[in-house]
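TL;DR need structure tokens for one chain.
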Amino acid sequence: MAEFILPQNSKVKKGKTVTLPQKAGNTKKFIVYRYDPATDENPTFDTFEIDLDECGPMVLDALIEIKSTTDPSLSFRRSCREGICGSCSFNINGVNGLACTQSINDLKGDVRVFPLPHMKVVKDLVVDMSDFYDQYAAVEPWLKTNSSQPEGKERHQTKEQQEKIDQPSACILCACCSTSCPSYWWNGDKFLGPAALLAAYRWLQDSRDEATDERLKELNDSAKLYRCHTIMNCSFACPKDLNPGQAIAEIKRMIATRDL
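>> reply
TL;DR here they are.
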């Protein structure tokens, strides 16, 4: 797994440190990014000591423990706790991932939890996902057809046809891939990013979809697609082991080999 180091802000200062009232035998320090744009001039880092014998095994368990027992003002998103919803995506020890599937025991030393890189912070670990979702919607991620649906029947696929969309359909829109991409950091207002392009690829591969040329023409743009420089951070960062980089390369190949 490659590491993606969050750019350091020289104005970020050390915040409060919360230690256990009595010495426990199995402890770990969690250094958590704190920032409320409504009240704070600059971000800070708060340090919390956690008794791992009294906490669940995942980083999300530690954050819940901190919020429940120490600092209820800590803000972060969570939902399924099963690696399915993508809500608890953070930068953990320099690597984008899901807090609910990241084992604490797999992390050496202190655990540093940041919001996703290069996203506007709403509060603490919560980032504004509006642009990310708009980019996803821009690829029109739904079935588009011109022919009439067979009366009383579904649009069928063979097993082989379904397997082509099986992997890209597994994307949970956690944004780990897009926020690990330098091209997305600097061109997020124009470049669609790995997650949206993976979604586009999913529909380009769907045998039932009848808008392949229309979709490719829309993607054939120097900013929307070709800002990807095949750095491949996206594929390393994906917590579902998907390969957005390969999907983007395949979209480029489809455009190059079709008469649009």
